[in-house]
Design a protein that fits this description.
heterodimer; A: mainly alpha; 75% helix; flat; B: 4-stranded antiparallel sheet; 8 helices
Chain lengths: 268, 282
Amino acid sequence: MSSLSLPRRSTKPHRAIPRSLQGWLLPIALVVAWELLSRLGLVAPNLLPAPTTVLQTILVIARSGELFRHVGITLYRVVLGFGIGTLVATVLGALTGYSRTAHAYLDPLLQALRNIPSIAWVPLFILWLGIYESSKVTLIAVGVFFPVYLNLMSGIQGVDRKLVEVGKIYRLSQLQLVRRVFLPATLPAYLVGLRNGLGLGWMFVVAAELMGASQGLGYLLIDGQTTGRPAVIIASIVLFALLGKLTDSGLSAVSQRLLYWQDSYGAG
Amino acid sequence: MLSLNRQLPNSLPPYPSTRLPIHPSTRLPAHPPMLHIENVHKQFDNGLLALEGIDLAIKPGEVVSLVGTSGCGKSTLLRIVAGLEFPTLGAALIDGEVITAPHPKVGLIFQEARLMPWLTVAENIQFGLKDLPRLEQQWRTEQVLQKVHLTNFATALPRQLSGGMAQRVAIARALVTQPSILLLDEPFSALDAFTRTQLQDHLLDIWAEDHPTLLLVTHDVEEALVLSDRIIVLRPHPGRIHRELAIELPRPRRRTSLEFQRLKEQLIGELDLTPELDLVKR
């Protein structure tokens, strides 16, 4: 560049702890403190067992093969519910976002339904669909539906009119306009909707499994409660946290890959 | 050097004043004006009359500027020619055909670059070329990238470009379809003075190569004088053609020349820069 030797600020300032590890500091400190308090007998082990006890419990359930069955069925419900909810939301959101007529007919009803707390559907779903998988998956799908629908619809409506005009100048057909302008322009909002939806999917799988299940992480929660084993309860909570974080990170990674072109502060 | 005409210039051949539709046999084959604007009125939904009785004929290869204070309807007129808006009365015609949709022979450059942020520079330029074979697209893109001096930025994303570079990409995107009419809606007004002057000269170079018809909307008097064969002065409330100035200075024009300064002063006089007081009285 220039031959002037200005003192250049390094783009990566030297930090005592690398940025990627900073987020681990507080959780580790809390776990260590929790372990210490348990070892010192300052918290009752029948209410809050030590982290090592929780870890042992997880290992025991894992060794018996139970863990994979529970995790597997919960994951299956979330994935299926998320898939169905996303599919329906994508079709309806695209329709109401793109067509004013569809919006006028459909959106008021969907907005009204959105205001019903989704858990309130539980008795009706059980009555209609029974206590097995269908009612659970339906509940999760309903939970996933609304954030995806809302984000997609408002995303499409928010597409820059100026870019649409460029498409019109080049005489794109409606279909080409959707594929080449609306789709990429809506992607950021849609991906935010998917991430919100996935979060709600995890929330509703707990609700679904609490209302009556013979397997799944939610069942483990209830099982731990009825048999007085707090370690099992905490173990399932930890597993929920892990799975939720893992799936969200996956989606977030996909988002970043798809949205490489965004000029945003966070992208740095 | 300078001639002042009211309304239509008499140097142009007469044109049938029949409106839509015009039968092909009634077209004038000799030297048909590429672009005709006939008695165009535009009233917006809110009742505002943006344009009233606009008549204009533009010859192939002519450079015409529409100037006027804000609200005079110059941008609306350009959007009507672009096929993005439609007149309430009258018609705009290209080669005798009423414009009912964006015309394949017309390129449009907006005030903002309006690049698709998810496409690279080359992909943005090819945005309007999708019907052509791949090889032809690539060849044309290379040509036009050279024209706007951005060959090294073919794979860059819009967020990596400066304002002036982005606008050059927009120019390239319009040029790559080889339009015979190029419409420009205040294309350089968002840029700094230095870049603006550069791009004006650049536009003239491009024009000198293929001689497309240029219809330019601007509020920059100097820009209009540097570029145009003819300047149409519009006045607002409602938007009407106030005057036409034919600029016969040879190109390239020196912005500092005495004649240039004299014309500039005259044009500013024509613009009537005190419309705000009128508005207050209403």
